């Protein structure tokens, strides 16, 4: 690992102490080379709005939706939740499109969704 990358990663990690979670997380992933315009802003980083967003999109996605288990996810401990971005095949292959999409697409079968959850009292 180069000293420049090491320094950039240290700065990105340090930002979590003073920067809102969404911005610090986006900066961290950008440092790692992961970024996308495909995002949805969760109103006020509300955990309930975050779950409602996924309940809505999972019901429109192909196949049967798996119910979200709030107990296993420790939902009661969530202080804030943000959808950061979605990486699809297009972003991963670095192909450019004449008509880039910037919304999260529930129909993308091969994609990764990055999110950040701030917990109330514990790691």
In short:
The chain is of the alpha+beta class.
SS-based class: alpha+beta
Pick out the low-confidence regions: none
Instruction: Categorize the overall geometry.
Output: globular
The overall pLDDT average reads: 82
Percent in strands: 15-25%
SS elements, strand count:
2
What is the succession of H and E elements? HHHEHE
Question: How large is the radius of gyration?
Answer: 16 Å
Largest sheet: 2 strands, antiparallel
- The helix fraction, in percent, is 25-40%
Give the end-to-end Cα distance, rounded to a whole number of Å: 28 Å
- What's the helix count? 4
Lateral arrangement of strands in the main beta sheet: 1-2
Detailed description of the structure:
The protein is an alpha+beta fold. Helices cover 34% and strands 16% of the residues. It has helices at 3-14, 21-31, 47-60, 89-93; strands spanning 78-88, 111-119. Helix 1 runs antiparallel to helix 2 (21-31). The model has no long low-confidence stretch (mean pLDDT 82).
Features of the shown structure:
4 helices; single chain; 123 residues; 2 strands
List the helices and strands and how they pair.
Blueprint: H1 3-14, H2 21-31, H3 47-60, E1 78-88, H4 89-93, E2 111-119
Antiparallel strand pairs: 1-2
Helix pairs in contact: 1-2
């Amino acid at each position: 690992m180069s000293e420049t990358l090491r320094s950039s990663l240290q700065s990105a990690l340090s930002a979590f102490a003073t920067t809102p979670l969404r911005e610090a997380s986006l900066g961290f992933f950008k440092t790692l080379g992961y970024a996308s315009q495909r995002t949805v802003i969760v109103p006020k980083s509300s955990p309930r709005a975050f779950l409602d967003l996924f309940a809505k999109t999972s019901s429109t996605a192909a196949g049967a939706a798996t119910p979200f288990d709030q107990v296993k996810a420790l939902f009661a401990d969530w202080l804030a939740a943000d959808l950061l971005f979605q990486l699809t095949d297009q972003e991963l292959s670095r192909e450019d499109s004449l008509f880039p999409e910037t919304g999260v697409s529930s129909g993308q079968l091969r994609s990764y969704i990055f999110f950040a959850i701030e917990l109330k009292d514990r790691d």
